[in-house]
Amino acid sequence: MTNYYLYNLKINKRNDQYCITISNSDINKYIEISKMLSIWYDIYQRLLNGEITEEEYNDWRYNYPKNKWQETKAVLDELRKKEN
């Protein structure tokens, strides 16, 4: 199944620029991809602001969402240690 069918992506043109838009006809899928794009944007801004290196950014890009799962697991493990 292609991403078009998974997320109902559509190609558009605005101000002579091509862009992809996401239909919100399936709100759950819309929310899911919106969250992913928001995270990607935040990480990219960190790169632009010099908070992370290009190597760190590329590592994140190539491993997301696996690395998000690892980060979440690390936080939960730390919380569990504090509870014990």
Give me a quick take on this structure.
By secondary structure, the protein is α+β, with helices and mostly antiparallel strands. Helix content is 65%, strand content 14%.
Give a written overview of the molecule.
There is one protein chain. With 84 residues, this protein is of the alpha+beta class. The protein has a domain at 26-83. The chain is 65% helix and 14% strand. A two-stranded antiparallel sheet has the order 1-2.
Percent of residues in helical segments? 55-70%
- The residue ranges in which pLDDT falls below 50 over 5 or more consecutive positions are none
Helix-strand topology string: HEEHHH
- How many strands appear in the DSSP assignment? 2
Quick one: biggest sheet? 2 strands, antiparallel
Please identify the structural class as seen in this structure: alpha+beta
Approximately what portion of the residues adopt beta-strand conformation? 5-15%
Write the layout of secondary structure elements.
Elements: H1 3-7, E1 9-14, E2 17-22, H2 27-48, H3 54-63, H4 66-83
Helix pairs in contact: 2-3
